């Protein structure tokens, strides 16, 4: 009995557990855990160039989630609508480039979920303070729905609401933890989804917030 654990002491950890949530939806538990500190450092560098901002919806509401972007294109919202733009409207400069480690993570996670060859051209970075939620929506401002969405969670946990093809379809609650990567594409590409209000807390690496990086192919 006493020797049992020692047998495994030198083995690498098992591959991260992949959970299929739909025909085109896979949750890669803890997939980015080891890379998380480097990814958070990369986010901090991006934010130094393109700071957090709360965007305005076309209807005139201030969004609760603070956002920025990296990559050739960034997602924005203002009175004129939702769209992808190459320049940060705050800085007037191109969005910071996609860090290589983020491109690698996107490709590896998409491949692990059954979508090889994913090359994102946009990464929306969301910052949720405690109490912040994201209401049910589809990601449909992209030109090419054949490409999946790769969504990385860092910091405080959250409950992701995964719905169906119609707004009124029932939703399932998916806890998303620090280091989790959720991929949806193919038949699930246009599923409605949202995030419940983030609970109060303090994470060792992000402090009192949750970060989400959503990698997408916006243009063909
Ligand atoms: O924060 C999340 O987990 C999801 C974010 C999202 O759905 C979006 O940015 O479109
Ligand atoms: Fe979304």
TrEMBL record:
Keywords: Dioxygenase, Iron, Metal-binding, Oxidoreductase. InterPro entries: Alkb, AlkB-like, AlkB-like_sf, Oxoglu/Fe-dep_dioxygenase_dom. Pfam families: 2OG-FeII_Oxy_2. The keyword Coiled coil does not apply. It comes from the Bacteria. GO terms for molecular function: dioxygenase activity. Its cofactor is Fe(2+). Residues 119-219 form the Fe2OG dioxygenase domain. The keyword Lipid metabolism does not apply. PANTHER family: ALKYLATED DNA REPAIR PROTEIN ALKB-RELATED (PTHR16557), NUCLEIC ACID DIOXYGENASE ALKBH1 (PTHR16557:SF2). This is DNA-N1-methyladenine dioxygenase.
